[in-house]
Amino acid sequence: MKNVGVLTSGGDAPGMNACIRAIVRCGVSHGLEVVGIRWGYAGLLERDFVTLGARSVSNILQRGGTFLGTSRCEEMKTPQGIKKAVEILREEGIEGLITIGGDGTFRGATALAEAGYTRIVGVPCTIDNDVYGTDHTIGFDTAVNTALDAIDKIRDTAESLQRPFFIEVMGRTRGFIALDVGVAGGAEHSLIPEIKADLEDLSHSIEHDFRKGKKSSIVVIAEGDEAGGAVRVAQEIGKRLGVEYRVCVLGHIQRGGSPTAADRILASKLGAAAVDALVNGKECHMVGEMKGEITLTPLRETWGRMKELDSKLLELIKVLAS
Ligand code: F6P
What residues contact residue 149 under an 8 Å CB cut-off, 6+ apart? Predict the structure, then answer.
């Protein structure tokens, strides 16, 4: 193999730059030319390429976002888009491809492989942590810490005015962020998409929080919760309780910022593992880390299988908030 292409796709996540850096520097040390593809799959379809040397990735390890740019590319969801992408990869002589992103990125990569371009390795990078085949995705730890910092601050004002707060964290379909933030932030309640919320029960619990002497009650809600986001849940609970409450939607703040040490380390390990996998002839797999070991999971499984979530943490949140 003489060269390898690298792209970031879907929602950006802190640690993407650290991962690109690892891929470029490990690729160069293997004697490969590394071709950066700007703006994800959209840039691939536009042949927006840039050669990356060791110095092109200086001073990006600690930066959030992705210096290559990213996109959510509708054309890559069509057979024509996939066919065009395979033709471009072949015409440009890109011998292997590393795709950094989440489930949408790996759906695209699987489609490329099925259309005949098989030398692909994925690296899991999304704040949602909703990718099968790795304990943690790159970016998740930073997002949890960012949300935690906000919750600690909200707690100060919530206690001062004795108000219930409804805080929405990201997680379109899964509750990984809401669960971890709930435990680490000492939330009184967390609502996640995987478990149906009983709003009647929640309003009684919040009432009880104050009756037993708490000065605040924090409810963390995953944006994809079936009861609606924080605004809807708060309105429902507010009607039942008849007290003043506040809502805070943390939103894209969780996607930005300097990656934590844990995310930089994971990004560095998985970036290096992706290059090694390709160099060793591995195809159509995603690198991950499970129980401290580097793993390889078939691309199709990364989005086709459901990653388990530790729902026992919900019980722990309740007990610890008693
Ligand atoms: O990247 C994952 C994610 O941050 C989800 O948590 C969220 O639902 C979504 O992306 C938001 O996407 P966009 O930035 O396109 O609005």
Answer: none
pTM of the predicted structure, to 2 decimals: 0.97
Greatest Cα pair distance, the chain, in angstroms, is 69
Among the options 128, 180, 209, 225, which is catalytic? 128
User: Is any ligand 1 atom within 6 A of the Cβ of residue 225?
Assistant: no
For 169, the enclosing helix (H) or strand (E) is: strand 164-169
- What does DSSP assign to residue 138? B
Please name the residue whose Cα sits nearest to atom 2 of ligand 1: 11
Specify whether 128 is catalytic.
yes
User: Which band of pLDDT confidence, cut at 50, 70 and 90, is reported for residue 224?
Assistant: very high
92 neighbors 69 (Cβ within 8 angstroms): no
Indicate if ligand 1 lies below 6 Å from the C-beta of 172.
Answer: yes
Taking only the tens place, the pLDDT of each residue in 272-294 is: 999 999 999 999 999 999 999 99
